[in-house]
Amino acid sequence: VQLQASGGGLVQAGDSLRLSCAASGRYFSSYIAGWFRQAPGKEREFVSAINSKGITVYTDSVKGRFTISRDNAKNTLYLQMNSLKPEDTAVYYCEAAHSWGRGTLVTVSS
């Protein structure tokens, strides 16, 4: 599967963004898909994931602010990010079936 993330940008603290990840391949709907992020000078970290049945999991720091979803008909994964904080600044990557998309940069100013 090939993945392409988009939707990043520069926002202020408290704003919202929605990231999208377009996937190619016939079996995307059957994969667990997730979002990771890498802040400057830090290692890549898990953000959220969703399985084929829509069950979701989040890292503690984004619970209640971020929502992961998927549209299997469109082969697309989403991450709705609300109440953004400067510490959410990072390059965000989508992942599925051990494949990674090119990241999209999210910058949150204080």
Count the E strands. 11
Q: With helices defined by DSSP (H or I, 4 residues minimum), what is the helix count?
A: 0
Q: What is the helix content?
A: under 10%
Mean pLDDT: 96
Rough outline: globular
Q: What is the SS-derived class?
A: mainly beta
Q: Give the low-confidence spans.
A: none
* Spatial gap, N to C terminus: 37 Å
Order of helices and strands: EEEEEEEEEEE
Strand share of the residues?
over 45%
Rg estimate, integer Å: 13 Å
State the major sheet: 7 strands, mixed
List keywords for this structure.
single chain; 110 residues; mainly beta; seven-stranded mixed beta sheet; four-stranded antiparallel beta sheet; 11 strands; globular
Description of the molecule:
The mean pLDDT is 96. The protein is mainly β. It contains no helices and eleven strands. It is globular, with a radius of gyration of 13 Å. It has strands spanning 3-6, 9-12, 17-23, 33-38, 45-50, 56-58, 66-71, 76-81, 90-96, 99-100, 104-109. The protein starts with a strand and ends with a strand.
